[in-house]
Amino acid sequence: MQKLRSTISTLLSCLIISSVFFLAGCSFPGVYKINVQQGNIVTQDMLDKLRPGMTKRQVHFVLGNPVVTNLFNETQESYLYTYQKAGGETVSQNIKVYYLDDVFERYEGDLLEEHPAY
After folding, report:
1. What is d(CA 92, CA 104) in angstroms, rounded to the nearest whole number?
2. What whole-number percentage of the chain has pLDDT above 70?
3. Domain boundaries in the chain?
4. Helix (H, G, I), strand (E, B), or coil: what is residue 78?
5. What's phi and psi for 22, nearest 5 deg?
6. Which of 50, 71, 53, 77 is nearest to 62 (CA)?
7. What is the pTM of this model?
8. Is 94 helix (H, G, I), strand (E, B) or coil?
9. CA distance 76 to 82
10. What DSSP designation does 71 have?
11. Rg of the chain's alpha carbons, rounded to an integer?
């Protein structure tokens, strides 16, 4: 009987200790949060290389392939970029590239002042 009580007491102690560690890990306020970067980084240098009359292939060589493909409107491509620092505020940029007869015409959008990823 004494051995059974000792075993139950040991198991109960282990269960309580592991529960405390588990709950502490879930609710600890200093949980590490990562920076999240998604999309295409487009810089002013890249946009300066674009010239009216370039083909889509040439634009993709300069800017990269767009992350989002517009299946309903082939005359427009969007280069999206978002950055969230450690669970904080998310900043984003959207550069829209317009084509006329599959030839680069113009772009619209505002660049971020800096790209925090680098």
Report:
1. 24
2. 88
3. 1-31, 36-108
4. strand
5. -65, -50
6. 50
7. 0.67
8. strand
9. 20
10. S
11. 27
Looking at residue 110, its amino acid is D
CATH-assigned architecture of domain 36-108: 2-Layer Sandwich (3.30)
- Is residue 95 within 8 A of residue 108, CB to CB? The reply is yes
Outline where 28-74 has alpha helix (H).
Answer: 44-48, 56-63
What is the strand order of the sheet 76-84 is part of? 36-39, 76-84, 90-100, 103-108
d(CA 60, CA 42): 12
pLDDT digits (tens, 9 = 90+) for 19-54: 777 766 665 566 677 888 888 889 999 999 999 999
Residue 108 has a pLDDT of: 94
Q: Residue 46, SS3? A: helix
